[in-house]
Amino acid sequence: MPIVKVRENFQITLPAAIRKRFKIAVGDYVEAEGTREGIMIKPVKIIRPEEAWFYTEEWQKGEQEADEAIAKGEVVGPFENIKDALKALKKARV
Questions:
Q1: Is there a single domain that holds both residue 89 and residue 59?
Q2: Which distant-in-sequence residues (6+ apart) come within 8 Å of 32 by Cβ?
Q3: Confidence of residue 94 (pLDDT cuts 50, 70, 90)
Q4: Mean pLDDT for the chain?
Q5: Chain centroid, CA 35 distance in Å
Q6: For residue range 62-84, what is the model confidence (pLDDT) as tens digits?
Q7: Which of 3, 12, 74, 85 fits 79 for a cystine, CB–CB 3.0-4.6 Å?
Q8: Eight-state DSSP code of residue 37
Q9: Which range marks the domain in which residue 21 is found?
Q10: Are 31 and 14 in contact (CB under 8 A)?
């Protein structure tokens, strides 16, 4: 278990192996909580209110369905231009 030193202004540096394992980057937030065993530090992802829709269960289900359709080749595109896209849509309606 790595030992870290408390520095000026009570700052600590998380060891590189821990930062990599939990994908913690400069500017990320962590939550510090006192427990019976000591201090627990957990990564926290901040979601801006205007982006919260993306993380709803309903939207994530749709994302998963889209990923599966793409993997199965059930989608067409991307297209170089609008003419080709419209042509594919008209063909799909038939």
A1: yes
A2: 39, 40, 41
A3: low
A4: 93
A5: 28
A6: 999 999 999 998 888 889 999 99
A7: 85
A8: S
A9: 8-44
A10: no
The reply to whether 2 falls in a domain is: no
- What's the 3-state SS for 41-59? EEEECCCCHHHHHHHCHHH
* Same domain? 32 vs 58: no
Reported confidence tier of residue 12, pLDDT bands at 50, 70, 90: very high
Counted domains in the chain: 2
The CA distance from 84 to 77, in Å, is 9
Enter the tokens of residue 93.
């309606």
Give the pTM. 0.52
Residue 20, phi-psi category: left (phi > 0), alpha (psi -120 to 50), beta (remainder): alpha
